[in-house]
Specification:
There is one protein chain. The protein has 175 residues and is α/β, with parallel strands linked by helices. The chain has one domain: Molybdenum Cofactor Biosythetic Enzyme, Chain A (3-Layer(aba) Sandwich). The protein is 41% helix and 19% strand. The chain is built from 7 helices and 6 strands. Strands 2-1-3-6-5-4 form a 6-stranded mixed sheet, sandwiched between helices. The protein is globular, with a radius of gyration of 15 Å. The model has no long low-confidence stretch (mean pLDDT 96). InterPro entries: MoaB/Mog-like_dom_sf (IPR036425), MoaB/Mog_dom (IPR001453), MPT_Adenylyltrnsfr/MoaC-Rel (IPR051920).
Length: 175
């Protein structure tokens, strides 16, 4: 049985320098362990908020590492250093704005500043790239909102089949 590769990319100047521990990337891993029953492994990296480094890393995770899915965390706000969405758009062939729209809608239930977040998603060749916020609580909420569409999206774009723990997450696959 093949192991599904999923990229987990934390974009943070301070975490990349070891100033603080990356708890956001670990939260993505925890959520995926709850949701995915297929054999999977992560390709995990922490990098600074530099657009060229983000683009290069996304390209490597997709094209060389063979990740069918990449989750980024961090760099989606309105500050000058927040460039993850721009990097994602530059490496993708197709954008899927519905992911960001749904994540912001979900986050608005909890905080009015969710409208400041610029998460997005797109397809690079056969890889789905999803930008998540940087806060662990928001990460879980946002993945929970969009994950029901992810397995079917991966089947459509690359033929990847991800099985899920139906007691933890209900996914949609048309019949």
């Amino acid at each position: 049985m093949n192991v599904i590769k999923i990229g987990i990319l934390t974009v943070s100047d301070r975490a990349s320098k070891g100033i603080y521990e990356d708890i956001s990337g670990k939260e993505i891993n925890n959520v995926l362990n709850d949701y995915i029953s297929s054999k999977w492994g992560s390709v995990y990296q922490v990098i600074p908020d530099e657009q060229d480094i983000i683009e290069q890393t996304l390209t490597t995770l997709s094209d060389k590492e063979g990740c069918c899915l990449i989750f980024t965390t961090g760099g989606t706000g309105p500050t000058v250093r927040d460039v993850t969405p721009e990097a994602t758009e530059n490496v993708c062939n197709k954008m899927l704005p519905g992911f960001g729209e749904l994540m912001r809608q979900e986050s608005l239930v909890y905080v009015p500043t969710a409208i400041l977040s610029r998460q997005t998603a797109g397809i690079r060749n056969k890889t789905l790239i999803v930008n998540l916020p940087g806060k662990p609580k928001s990460i879980r909420e946002c993945i929970q909102a969009v994950f029901p569409a992810i397995p079917y999206c991966l089947e459509l774009t690359g033929g990847y089949k991800i099985d899920t723990n139906e007691k933890n997450i209900k996914v949609f696959r048309p019949k």
